[in-house]
Amino acid sequence: MDDEPLSQWAERRDARIGQLRAVPLVTGDGPRASHLNPDAPRAIQRWNGHLWEAYGFAANLAEARRILFPHAEAAATPEASPRLGPGTGRHRKPPAP
């Protein structure tokens, strides 16, 4: 059994401090996956190094994603899809004679 040194474990744990997560607020033991209840409200939680603490609230999945990933919207701008260049790939249409 390979045990990692305590200093490496503490470093790995401290790297997560400030990380956010969204937890769907559903009753009972219902599905907690985000794609199953996209309109359910979310509690935004922040990792403080020891436990998840309340940080904020989101009305639905889309709002929670905007809070969790603020820079993703700028990167999500649609760009021109790459075109296939000339070649003899296996699934390419052969040139017309």
UniProtKB/TrEMBL annotation:
InterPro entries: DUF6087. It comes from the Bacteria. Residues 73-97 are annotated as: Disordered. It holds the Pfam family DUF6087. This is Uncharacterized protein.
